[in-house]
Design brief:
Blueprint lengths: L5 E6 H11 L12 H17 L3 E5 L7 H5 L12 H4 L2 H11 L3 E2 L6 H13 L4 E5 L13 E4 L6 E2 L1 H8 L6 H8 L14 H11 L2 H6 L7 H9 L1 H11 L21 H11 L2 H5 L2 E3 L6 E3 L9
Parallel strand pairs: 1-2, 1-4, 2-3, 4-5
Antiparallel strand pairs: 5-6, 7-8
Length: 304
């Protein structure tokens, strides 16, 4: 892959959840639920049309307990069980990616965030321009000159300047911000009583979590000062939980992510099985010779 190539990395786990809840319940003629598959496919095809990347991959949480779960048993414990209807659709989402010939990245015991972080940082170090497709704010810590984040719903792109404007710190300071404020999505505790505004004010004044903890005596509000002092170790734990790993040993090379033409036969088989006729239409083009349908890659327009 040449140094100037553009790589799009998609948070597959987060995208599947968003797709499931974004669409009303839908089923194939066989009774199999399909709303997550359709929503995921719609998002991904739109993204590929708009970004036109030379390389793309989708990351999913791997099976088994993670390092964060071993360090903090309550990590993500506030989340409800994954709906059965979504679990049933994940194999179909993977089949759709197989049909598009897009790698699905999974590692046992590793979260999608850490896979994304490791691939993004290692690719950026080789001169690749990386776009992360995610709505998770913790991944904003990866933003840099070579890495941007695009919101999968709003399409808003975030670079270093936008991170500083939002949090009052550069991207590397996002874990410090989350260590103070906590993160209810992942059940990261933070410091009780510290919200977004207070976390920003503390970091703008002191610069980092460790500086806040070391100079807690300078905090004028007694209640806040005491909360910082009494929850220092909890704040440090929260930061460890919030830091995205970028050093995972990866079994893939950049060449594995190179964009390839889809296997339209596989995609159309899946669409027929799930009765996704509008999605199938994007993979069928009129034959110029006989006017009959002929398999082909997705067109630049249309909707599933």
């Amino acid at each position: 892959m040449p140094p100037a190539s553009r790589l799009v990395l998609v948070d597959g786990t987060g995208s599947a959840y968003r797709a499931f809840y974004a669409l009303p319940p839908l089923t194939a003629s066989s009774g199999v639920p399909t709303n997550a598959v359709l929503g995921f496919a719609t998002m991904l095809l739109k993204l590929l049309r708009e970004e036109a990347p030379e390389a793309v991959a989708v990351a999913f949480d791997g099976p088994g307990p993670t390092t964060r779960h071993r360090e903090f048993a309550a990590y993500k414990a506030n989340r409800p069980e994954t709906p059965v209807a979504l679990v049933e659709q994940l194999p179909y989402i993977l089949r759709f990616l197989e049909g598009l010939r897009i790698p699905a990245l999974r590692l046992p015991g590793e979260e999608a965030d850490d896979i994304l972080g490791s691939v993004a940082v290692q690719a950026a170090a080789q001169g690749v321009l990386v776009t992360l497709i995610t709505g998770d704010k913790d991944l904003l810590q990866l933003v840099g000159e070579q890495v941007t984040v695009r919101d999968p719903v709003k399409g808003r792109r975030t670079g270093p300047a936008e991170v500083r404007e939002k949090f009052g710190v550069p991207p590397a300071g996002v874990p410090d911000f989350l260590a103070l404020m906590g993160d209810s999505v992942d059940n990261i505790p933070g410091v009780p009583g510290v919200g977004e505004k207070t976390a920003r004010e503390l970091l703008e004044r002191f610069g980092s979590l460790e500086a806040v903890l070391d100079r807690a005596a300078e905090i004028p509000k007694a209640k806040l000062r005491e909360a910082i002092r009494s929850h220092a170790e909890q704040a440090r734990l929260s930061k460890r939980l919030a830091v995205i790993r970028t050093d995972l040993p990866l079994p893939w090379s950049l060449a594995d992510f190179a964009r390839r033409d889809p296997d339209t036969g596989l995609v159309l088989d899946l669409c027929r099985e799930l009765t996704l006729t509008r999605l199938a239409a994007q993979f069928v083009q009129p034959s110029l010779e006989e006017g009959r349908p002929a398999s082909g890659p997705p067109s630049a327009g249309g909707s599933p």
